[in-house]
Description:
The complex is a heterotrimer. Chain A is an alpha+beta fold. In chain A, 50% of the residues lie in helices and 21% in strands. Chain A folds into 2 domains: 5-48 and 248-386, no CATH class; 62-232, no CATH class. In chain A, strands 1, 3, 4, 5, 6, 7, 8, 9, 11 and 12 form a 10-stranded mixed beta sheet that branches. In chain A, strands 2-10 form a two-stranded antiparallel sheet. The longest helix of chain A has 36 residues, at 248-283. Chain A is elongated, with a radius of gyration of 29 Å. Chain A starts with a helix and ends with a helix. In chain B, the strands form 2 sheets. In chain B, strands 6-7-8-3-9-10 form a 6-stranded mixed beta sheet, sandwiched between helices. In chain B, strands 2-1-4-5 form a 4-stranded antiparallel beta sheet, covered by helices on one side. In chain B, α4 crosses α5 and α5 (150-162) runs parallel beside α6. Chain C folds into 2 domains: 2-44 and 253-382, no CATH class; 60-234, no CATH class. Chain C is elongated. Chains in contact: A-B, A-C. The interface between A and C is large, with 56 and 55 residues.
Amino acid sequence: xxxxxxxxxxxxxxxxxxxxxxxxxxxxxxxxxxxxxxxxxxxxxxxxxxxxxxxxxxxxxxxxxxxxxxxxxxxxxxxxxxxxxxxxxxxxxxxxxxxxxxxxxxxxxxxxxxxxxxxxxxxxxxxxxxxxxxxxxxxxxxxxxxxxxxxxxxxxxxxxxxxxxxxxxxxxxxxxxxxxxxxxxxxxxxxxxxxxxxxxxxxxxxxxxxxxxxxxxxxxxxxxxxxxxxxxxxxxxxxxxxxxxxxxxxxxxxxxxxxxxxxxxxxxxxxxxxxxxxxxxxxxxxxxxxxxxxxxxxxxxxxxxxxxxxxxxxxxxxxxxxxxxxxxxxxxxxxxxxxxxxxxxxxxxxxxxxxxxxxxxxxxxxxxxxxxxxxxxxxxxxxxxxxx
Amino acid sequence: xxxxxxxxxxxxxxxxxxxxxxxxxxxxxxxxxxxxxxxxxxxxxxxxxxxxxxxxxxxxxxxxxxxxxxxxxxxxxxxxxxxxxxxxxxxxxxxxxxxxxxxxxxxxxxxxxxxxxxxxxxxxxxxxxxxxxxxxxxxxxxxxxxxxxxxxxxxxxxxxxxxxxxxxxxxxxxxxxxxxxxxxxxxxxxxxxxxxxxxxxxxxxxxxxxxxxxxxxxxxxxxxxxxxxxxxxx
Amino acid sequence: xxxxxxxxxxxxxxxxxxxxxxxxxxxxxxxxxxxxxxxxxxxxxxxxxxxxxxxxxxxxxxxxxxxxxxxxxxxxxxxxxxxxxxxxxxxxxxxxxxxxxxxxxxxxxxxxxxxxxxxxxxxxxxxxxxxxxxxxxxxxxxxxxxxxxxxxxxxxxxxxxxxxxxxxxxxxxxxxxxxxxxxxxxxxxxxxxxxxxxxxxxxxxxxxxxxxxxxxxxxxxxxxxxxxxxxxxxxxxxxxxxxxxxxxxxxxxxxxxxxxxxxxxxxxxxxxxxxxxxxxxxxxxxxxxxxxxxxxxxxxxxxxxxxxxxxxxxxxxxxxxxxxxxxxxxxxxxxxxxxxxxxxxxxxxxxxxxxxxxxxxxxxxxxxxxxxxxxxxxxxxxxxx
Lengths: 388, 234, 385
């Protein structure tokens, strides 16, 4: 049996100030690490849940998003007749022809402008998105200049609240309802009647056509048919895949930025741990010699100091994660680089992130403590006893 | 005199330190036998090599040439790992500055050597309590070294030294940091351990009072061992 | 001088510990410098933009167009010197990750308006002669190893199809901040193709660029333009180029604020490390400080020693970090230069780094100084040996 664990732990307790400072450094690094992972996860969750696996979205070939796309009425009517489309409760296919444009709205808090998505919806649009729930007011009457706003828009943007009015396309539009789509991208949108919006913006074509598959496995069949049809210049994607693709650039940017930051910071924290552990070894030279004299092997000494360093890391990791968990109260509202539109998402803490954070802190502790521990284990017994 | 093998046999031991290009001899052709149950004091001026000799006997250091056998075992041919294991069972240490682990209680400090054996927790507890009783500190076993006086700390150290029932006890200036009363106490304890339990004690000391307690005094000067008749030089 | 010698020797009594602390400060200053430079790069677009140029676009949002016919009306407004127009083309070169900005512009007027882009005369003429010609910035050409005469094909996203262009010119910027990563081709070429297709986007522009006679009257002119088109089908929003770029940047301000926060967090981390070192150092030397007191040194002298040593360590680390920042920046420019044309370390960043190092050095010394100054001589002496 080796040196008891309580030795390592109690030594940290004895030099409290040093332990706190070193652990604080590591806690901050784990905080940043966790924050980035939580941000990326929040982004991913928002976009993935925004689309359904069972829905197909059809846009013009080559365009990367609905905003750039154009689907003519003629082409849209062809899509409506695809047999793979599910039939709704009213006996009609669950297909929606939608228009997506961006308008600039000022934020409530800062008055600075941001691009917001306006979606012209068809009769089936709401049914196709079960994640979207009306939480206040009512849906717009067909043929009217009424709109519903997503929760995030109502909260953050001027004129987006229920009863308020927005002006665009030379018309006034009244917000008659608010919908909540959870964490998904739809919460950052404003919905209105597609035909009314087409007229207001003088658009001749829709942006996209969305329909539900009667059988999810038939996706490949209908995709092939649409893309090979000479009358159409369209491409089809599963709705969730479409939204996932929209976030690729942002997710990658966050990941790269975040990881490089974390690595650089972790260097600082590791150096801090190293300084602390070297000092611990230097102060306890006499003890180390004594334990060696008593017959404890080099590896036991090594183990005890590594354990101490791991404890440091663990404390730092727990504190960092604890602080990071409070980030879940924040929501980030920013522009998606790929679509140029407003996107709101929040920090999401998963158990996977917790494990990664703890693991990372342990690794930092280990790296910081390794060299000092080796030095401790390699000391000459006689010399270390002399320095008591 | 005795037909029993000495517990410690030192034959033609030499040791020197290298400092740059100089080689300083510390021990020169040391020959010494220590019988079981003997209480030996090693004395000499500072730099005479007495501590070095003690370290060699306790297998803390390596000699240049010669043989040292303790309890019949030639410790000069053992590997580092084997020496560590050997020390744990065969040597009890008493240092000038007690060398207790500050973050462990008296009980835990005494238990430390037993962690290297295969004993169960209950068995370890029995041995520790016994050792602490011998040194009369059973009531303070949950105190930390910082809460004990110098004399009490040294007694804990002695308990730690005897808890594994080692072959030999080595003491390096055991009374060096103690006042007169505490020193008397410690020496009395060591004397009892030697007389009543038959423990072999090898002690390095400056203190003539300490040397008085020993059976035999060996004198080291410039690395060479002299034999001095007991009590003669005092 | 004696003081410096003393500080130096003291600091290096514990070579390894001091070296590690300096290393830590260096890493922290380096990352601080990088983060700040990164944020500056983000804003570099705004720096490059001019206050004497205006951008006129559709007030509803950037995805809506303005009629070509507007150009005549705008030209007549008082204060307008030049006018040019164009579209954000948004084409992809081979694959999405090769992203760069590409525009269709009214060539002659645009080149005149953007006098900071310098194109050799021969190349300019070749470009004007070739309808399918394009000219690109120097950094962009270097990135893809393009040479004059190469055929470059862009996949349209907004304007579908594969569009082939011939590289006729490579421009360089007159000053450091000018953007050398942009791709330009003839607006007429785009418009003719759109007319042929019968697209609704024919004779429509994405934006107008306007040069004003007097930069002080820019705001006035902007308002005059917007007034002209108020209540029409396509209302305009005119602002200076700088304001336009800044409004884009502000849309990502959540991320920018986060990065700024993080750059301060790194300073806090290193403060913890430095404070730790000073605390350990002071604890070891508490006996010495007591001795100094017995010799008659007053509290503030001792404080000075500790603070001085702390500052000494942090300043060395800071200077090393500042020295290394340009190298690290160059690395980043390799990776991200395509997105951020202006990647350079500003003096402001250097000053902030120095300030941070001083702050860290002072804060790290607080607790140890307090302990050393308040310890009673007897207690301190007891701690030696």
